[in-house]
């Protein structure tokens, strides 16, 4: 072959001494091709630098070769969502698919030209999410959608259970009255965290200390919520003999690192924990106890379930539990 001749499946077939169909079957791992022939074809393809024509393959399958990914617009301020996006993109690349990013600021009259959708933590009441779920496209959501519709596939985590473990750890370390900063129930994740906290307080006879913030809360909003909690139960024993707040759990991503200086300024020992782990919580001084949501793996799991729905190897209604873990650090250590 000439040096400037493009390497096609015909080139590989000719060099391997087989038909085009046999070469194609060998590279796809399908058809009745002997192992020896398959190895020969693969070796020739690697030597020639053959790259399959993904666009042509998707056209033959009557697909776009693209999936859509919707995430909340806090993406640029959240390492969690950045990692989640990378997980989706990496898994899509393994299937020779591209990813189109869709945000709630994109109002469109027509459905996106994609084969399926991944929804990262969809918020109830979001009109863009509602319109995407009404397209009829195969859809997978990370956490359940708190609305009238439900995705074809769901990847979810046991947030309430993990928060219970975190609160049990705080109690064992000497914290008798933890407070909570959490977003509203328009997010299934936030609603699960809030529910887990309320149930734990009821079980242990603790009066709840909760401040709600918006899902995309700024640092100022989070600090204001922390000041309110410190003012409510932070200045010694409250009226009626209530125990003052001696631990604070921050649900929104990045909230714990925002309030850490505030807690130090308060001059009291308040243990601090986060419901979302990140490089910032790991590198804080002291390092902050946090729940590792493993966002990259969560994104990959959502994308893989979508491809299984597209191929028919998974059925609509499939749900999978994504494992998360509690990382205990110095910020919740027992008092000396």
Give an overview in words.
A six-stranded parallel β-sheet has the order 2-1-3-4-5-11, with helices on both faces. Helix 1 (9-16) packs across helix 3 (35-48) and helix 5 packs parallel to helix 12 (295-311). Residues 233-240 have low confidence and may be disordered. 42% of the residues lie in helices and 15% in strands. It has helices at 9-16, 20-28, 35-48, 54-60, 79-94, 127-133, 159-172, 188-204, 219-233, 255-265, 279-283, 295-311; strands spanning 66-70, 98-102, 117-120, 139-142, 153-156, 178-183, 210-213, 247-250, 271-274, 289-292, 318-321, 325-327. It is α/β, with parallel strands linked by helices. Helix 8 (188-204) links the parallel strand 6 and strand 7. It folds into three domains: 9-52, 434 Repressor (Amino-terminal Domain) (Orthogonal Bundle); 66-157 and 296-321, Response regulator (Rossmann fold, 3-Layer(aba) Sandwich), CATH 3.40.50; 159-292, Response regulator (Rossmann fold, 3-Layer(aba) Sandwich). The chain has twelve helices and twelve strands.
């Amino acid at each position: 072959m000439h040096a400037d001749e493009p390497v096609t499946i015909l080139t590989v077939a000719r060099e391997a001494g087989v038909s085009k169909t046999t070469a194609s079957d060998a590279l796809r791992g399908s058809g009745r091709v002997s192992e020896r022939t398959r190895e020969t074809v693969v070796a020739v393809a690697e030597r020639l630098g053959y790259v399959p024509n993904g666009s042509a393959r998707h056209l033959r399958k009557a697909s776009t070769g693209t999936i859509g990914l919707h995430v909340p617009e806090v993406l640029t301020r959240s390492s969690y969502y950045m990692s989640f996006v990378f997980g989706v993109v990496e898994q899509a690349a393994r299937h020779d698919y591209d990813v189109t990013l869709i945000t709630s600021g994109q109002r469109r009259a027509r459905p996106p030209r994609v084969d399926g959708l991944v929804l990262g933590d969809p918020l109830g009441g979001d009109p863009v999410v509602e319109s995407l779920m009404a397209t009829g496209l195969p859809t997978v959501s990370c956490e359940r959608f708190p609305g009238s519709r439900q995705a074809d596939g769901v990847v979810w985590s046991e947030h309430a259970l993990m928060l219970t473990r975190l609160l049990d750890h705080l109690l064992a370390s000497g914290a008798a009255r933890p407070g909570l900063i959490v977003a509203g129930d328009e997010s299934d994740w936030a609603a699960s965290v809030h529910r887990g906290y309320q149930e734990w307080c009821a079980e242990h006879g603790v009066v709840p200390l909760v401040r709600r913030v918006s899902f995309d809360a700024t640092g100022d909003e989070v600090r204001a919520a922390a000041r309110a909690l410190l003012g409510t139960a932070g200045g010694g024993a409250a009226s009626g003999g209530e125990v003052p707040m001696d631990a604070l759990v921050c649900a929104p991503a990045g909230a714990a690192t925002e309030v850490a200086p505030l807690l130090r300024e308060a001059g009291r020992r308040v243990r601090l924990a986060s419901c979302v782990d990140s490089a910032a919580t790991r590198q804080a001084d002291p390092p902050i106890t946090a729940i590792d949501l493993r966002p990259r793996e969560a994104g990959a799991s959502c994308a893989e379930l979508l491809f299984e729905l597209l191929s028919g190897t998974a059925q609509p209604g499939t749900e999978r539990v994504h494992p998360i873990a509690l990382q205990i650090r110095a910020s919740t250590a027992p008092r000396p």
